[in-house]
Amino acid sequence: MSDHILFFGGGQHLPGLIRARSEASGRPCRVSVLGRIEGLSKLGDPNDYDRIVLLRADDQLEEWLAAAMAIHEADPVTHIGAISEQSQEIAAEAGRKLGVHTYDAETVRVVNDKYAMRKRLAEAGVEAVPYAAVSGPADVLAFCESFGLPCIVKPRQSTASRGVGVVRSVDDAEAAFARAAAADETSGIVAEAYIPGAQYSVEAFSEGGEHVVLAITRKYSDPVSMVELGHVLPAPLDAASQEAIESHVRMVLDALGVEFGPTHTEIVLAEHQPRVIETHLRLGGDDIWQMITGATGVDVVDLLMRQCLGDQVLADLRAELAHPARTPRSEAIWFAGAPENGVLVDVLGVDGPHPPGVTVEASAASGRELHGLENSSSRLAKARAHAEDPAQALALAKEAIGGLRIVSRYPPEHLDLV
């Protein structure tokens, strides 16, 4: 009997891609998805799956486990995967209930809780960035008095830069706390020291607790909202800085108990000392995993498929990265932000013309309400570019976004008609 992979969550097309890869490799597997109703549109073609079961986002864990058990009884599940942070805790519990190997529940909890992550890394002696749970603006001010300005305030559990704010003066504390609370009212809020320095993300793949770095990406964030504006890989780093970042990320993943699969770890390089912003048990977003394939030739989806089916993949991954015939190239992406208010009418210039190696795509439909750069979903378009070196790729992507024209209108309630 062939393998049956049950994926929890459907935020990307990866389950469908993995099924396609398995068929192309001569090892066809069945793929089921147990996800949330609002994620259906992001699954792509429903025919790519053997079954899709959707629940409401507010359904209790017991209902998710009952649905997983029903799928397992109808078609025994041999492997479990999870696409997003919101699904990993459920996947871990389902794996335990079904007797199928998957994420360790404690690792998922610590990785996805920014307060717990800081605590674990400090206890393991990996790094000690000041942090504290805060329950109101007064707590934020007390943290600033103890550790200085600026500081970061964010939900303990959130993604896509939702609710993240920088407190640069005491006057910012109330607004920063309100922003974090509005993004996540249930998990709590954490304040942590702001670490100045260049920001990077480290894409790694793990197996048996061993970690191989696929790529280091230089990332650029908005200084106010901390929403990511762009990425370029490989990051322009000297050999010593690259080794320091790779070594630190391996220690972080060890301390957090990461055993297998892809990870996306965000780092600040402060005076040649890497410090973690956060990490995730998944591929990097913002097209980073596609950019890795373009830059290195490593097919990350194939790695995922093979590991899901029980293969050992790190030896092949190392061989691919070291292949003498490989011709590395640089990849970059840049995003268009949004006006502070209004309603989107159109994004003009998406169809170009653009130079060779540049593609532009709008990511927002006409009629969207605009509220500035609140989170990653606020961005209106993206430009991908590849070139021989990072600086050239980044310049091409920025130039393409700079050539767009954002057309918006004010809704009637914003017009001051006299």
Automatic annotation (TrEMBL):
InterPro entries referenced in this protein's UniProt entry, alphabetically: ATP-dep_AA_Ligase, ATP-grasp, ATP_grasp_subdomain_1, LAL_C2
Sections of the chain in a coiled coil: none
Domain ATP-grasp, chain residue ranges per copy: 118-309
Transmembrane annotation, as ranges: none
Pfam family, one: LAL_C2
UniProt keyword list: ATP-binding, Ligase, Nucleotide-binding
Record-given protein name: ATP-grasp domain-containing protein
Organism: Streptomyces olivaceiscleroticus
